[in-house]
Design a protein that fits this description.
The protein is mainly alpha-helical. 68% of the residues lie in helices and 0% in strands. The longest helix has 18 residues. This is Putative zinc-finger domain-containing protein.
């Protein structure tokens, strides 16, 4: 699974809203891709903060926005070695 495909499925995956095959592919990708794993951790942190009705860490939110913007503006698969904001 590519980084772009993983990113598109990530929120639904973390919410338990994907089928078993997709969950296995996303899990495998997150285990092997440091950058996507970090993004998943950010989503989990934000989700956890919201569940506690606290404000998420502003740095985490900024990284998430930066990552989303990079996906919109790359025009290619972020996993192909192109520039990505999170994780360097």
């Amino acid at each position: 699974m590519s980084c772009a495909r993983s990113s598109r499925a990530l929120q639904a995956y973390l919410d338990g809203e994907v089928d078993e095959a997709t969950a296995r592919r996303v899990t495998s990708h997150l285990n092997g891709c440091r950058d996507c794993g970090l993004e998943a951790d950010l989503y989990r942190e934000i989700k956890s903060a919201l569940a506690r009705q606290q404000q998420p860490d502003p740095r985490a939110v900024e990284r998430l926005y930066t990552f989303a913007e990079s996906l919109l503006h790359t025009g290619s698969d972020p996993g192909d070695g192109g520039d990505r904001a999170p994780g360097g």
